[in-house]
């Protein structure tokens, strides 16, 4: 097993996800081995950090899920540091990405009385309200100067699809 792959596999998720992860275990194992092998071969950093790949499933219980927001992939690094933290669309440190800027603008249009409120880029209040923030690709490769980051959407596709189906069947 590859170092990154074993770190991803050892990261914990909330117990009520075990049934869904179990139903997708074959897809998950293939995906993690493929992604782990790719990271080891090219020597790039895993985005998000391997421990945070399943963060969304760790911080939002299956029982509490009311809405799923499915984004494309983790944010690539900007100026050498990764913005990805394991929750789709979310960033730490108040960094407002172009996508979050659009979300903020739409929230202000639909809720004009909230214009004085600070927009929390961690989206912490969303996840505590049952919003599962996941990406279609749970990982991507760190962008190198002059080289576009590489998505792992194809690698994660079957696993994410099974998770979404499992969520739908439970609700």
Describe the secondary structure blueprint for this structure.
Layout lengths: L2 H8 L7 H6 L1 H18 L3 E2 L7 H5 L7 E5 L26 H13 L13 H5 L2 E5 L4 E2 L11 H18 L1
Parallel strand pairs: 2-3
Antiparallel strand pairs: 1-4
Helix pairs in contact: 1-3, 3-7
In short:
The model has no long low-confidence stretch (mean pLDDT 81).
What does this molecule look like?
Helix content is 43%, strand content 8%. With 171 residues, the chain is mostly helical. The strands form two sheets. The chain has a two-stranded antiparallel sheet with strand order 1-4. A two-stranded parallel sheet has the order 2-3. The longest helix is centred in the first third of the chain and has 18 residues, at 25-42. It is globular and about 50 Å long. The termini are far apart.
Helicity level: 40-55%
Biggest sheet character? 2 strands, antiparallel
Based on the structure, what is the oligomeric state of the protein chains?
single chain
For the secondary structure, the number of strands is 4
Give the averaged pLDDT, no decimals.
81
| Count of helical stretches | 7
Extract low-pLDDT stretches: none
Alpha-carbon distance between the termini? 35 Å
Radius of gyration: 16 Å
Strand arrangement within the widest β-sheet reads 1-4
Structural class call reads mainly alpha
Overall shape: globular
Order of helices and strands: HHHEHEHHEEH
- Strand content is 5-15%
């Amino acid at each position: 097993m590859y170092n990154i792959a074993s770190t991803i596999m050892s990261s914990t998720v909330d117990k009520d996800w075990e049934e869904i992860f179990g139903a997708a275990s074959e897809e998950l194992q293939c995906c993690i081995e493929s992604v782990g092998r790719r990271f080891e071969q090219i020597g790039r950093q895993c985005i998000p950090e391997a421990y945070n790949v399943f963060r969304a499933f760790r911080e939002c219980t299956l029982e509490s899920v009311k809405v799923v927001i499915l984004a494309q992939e983790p944010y690539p690094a900007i100026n050498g540091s990764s913005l990805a933290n394991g929750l789709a669309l979310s960033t730490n440190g108040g960094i407002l990405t172009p996508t979050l800027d659009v979300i903020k603008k739409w929230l202000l249009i639909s809720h004009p009385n909230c214009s004085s409120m600070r927009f929390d880029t961690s989206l912490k209040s969303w996840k505590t309200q049952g919003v599962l923030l996941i990406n279609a690709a749970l990982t991507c490769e760190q962008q190198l100067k002059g080289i576009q980051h590489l998505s792992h959407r194809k690698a994660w596709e079957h696993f994410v699809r099974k998770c979404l189906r499992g969520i739908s069947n439970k609700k």
